[in-house]
Amino acid sequence: MQGSANLNLMIRAARKAARGLVKDFREVENLQVSVKAPGDFVSRADREAERVIREELTTGRPTYGWIGEETGEAKGEDPTRRWIVDPLDGTTNFLHGLPHWAISIALEHKGQIVSAVVYDPAKDELFWAEKGLGAWMNDRRLRVSGRVQMSEALFATGVPFGTRAGLGQSLAEVGRLMPGTAGLRRWGAASLDLAYVAAGRFDGFWERGLGPWDLAAGMLLVREAGGFAGGIDPAGDPLTTGEIIAANAGLFEPFAALVRGG
User: Fold this and answer.
1) Which H helix or E strand runs over 119?
2) Domain containing 186: what range?
3) Are residues 61 and 96 in the same domain?
4) Count of domains in the chain?
5) Of 141, 160, 191, which one is at a domain's C-terminal end?
6) What's the mean per-residue pLDDT of the chain?
7) How far is CA 63 from each of CA 57, 59, 60, 85, 197, rounded to the nearest angstrom?
8) Same domain membership, residue 216 and residue 195
9) Number of alpha carbons in the 13 Å side-chain half-sphere of residue 230
10) Which of 1, 53, 64, 170 is the 20 to 30 Å CA partner of 116?
């Protein structure tokens, strides 16, 4: 595997954090769990993974900024670069013993995501990309699917849970999409949903209410695999709005039209 020094640093950080997460996942019933909000849990494993990643990245690049799901944002001496990190995407899956969760790390430079890592330790699948150099899963080059018929396409989304707003809107979108497609999945880890679009496993994905750490790395994976990824509102930037829609080139427009209500 060849990549930039920054990408290799990101991969090392993800793999190092994964060792602790895998150990805790095997003993999930012993985790010390606190509640952030109804249906939105954070574990000791989550916090420890973020600590490991932050230590590794900031030691290697001490001038870069940082934003993480658990620890928030910290400005760096270099205002043009920052790490965007979700140490455990799919926390609820993790806490229920479901092997579908990931570590997501992205590097932003001058407002653009330039490097991305999404690592699924349970399956040992490492998705990675660099701007202009393509997307990969382990040592295999990724391409989005070639499907062009909505009736053959499989989509993924996230549906609000607990007290989160937007359930009605999400169900309306699902209602518009389901009748003319091959199906819909709600797997609970946005970074992996986007990685699966890049790998051609899903034909498209959309979700609202995300943090930048949920989608930054996956967005670059999709684009570098030949797909489209942008705001549900065409004028919006997913990193600031928290809303994203992604698909292959042939399906993006009809898919987006249904999601947007057109």
Assistant:
1) strand 112-120
2) 150-260
3) yes
4) 2
5) 141
6) 92
7) 10, 9, 9, 16, 33
8) yes
9) 14
10) 170
Residues 86, 90, 191, 126, CA torsion sign = positive
Is the full-model pTM beyond 0.90? yes
| Cβ-Cβ contacts under 8 Å for 207 (sequence gap 6 or more) | 157, 158, 190, 193, 215, 243, 244
CATH code of the domain containing 33: 3.30.540.10
For residue 80, give the DSSP letter. T
Cβ–Cβ contacts within 10 Å for residue 90, how many?
25
What tokens appear for 200 in the block? 């051609």
As a whole number of angstroms, the distance between CA 201 and CA 185 comes to 11
Nearest to 213 by CA among 106, 65, 76: 106
Report the C-alpha gap between 198 and 247 in whole angstroms.
8
- Write down which residue in 141, 169, 188 finishes a domain: 141
**38 and 162 in one domain?**
no
- Give me 77's structure tokens: 């001496």
In the predicted model, is pLDDT for residue 44 greater than 90? Answer: no
